[in-house]
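User
Take a look at the entry that follows and flag anything odd:
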Amino acid sequence: MDNELRELYQQVILDHNKSPRNFRKPEHANHSAEGYNPLCGDRIDIYLELENGIVKDIGFQGSGCAISKASASLMSSIIKGKTKKEAEILFNKFHDLITGKLGDEPDIEELGKLAVFAGVREFPARVKCASLAWHTMVSALNEDKKNISTEDASN
């Protein structure tokens, strides 16, 4: 990862950690899931208002490291307004990005701000921090009633 992307990564992570977007429980949420990363103690609750297969609103609450909170914040901003299928496609792209399946040069145009998480793949323990909110969001989308743990998910 080049220095310019690394600096952007740090700025975006710090900004979303300090001022997380959608850090709330939406009033009309009708889907939710709980996530937990026992390795570092991150806990997150994802709340969705899903209407006709579209994420009308999304919010999250919980506590965790800067990467976990920033990932949830950015995810919530990007997922709002997407269809369930689009949200699942974004999850797969993000997961491929942070696990290195997209290679050393991810398509920044395609990934947008999510590309700043490319550096996470260099720190395997942090992959679980970055992916926790995303796995939890997919669980909420699918009304999966079990709690999500990073130790059960494939990163």
User: Anything to note?
Assistant: The two ends are 21 Å apart (CA to CA). Residues 124-141 form the longest helix (18 residues).
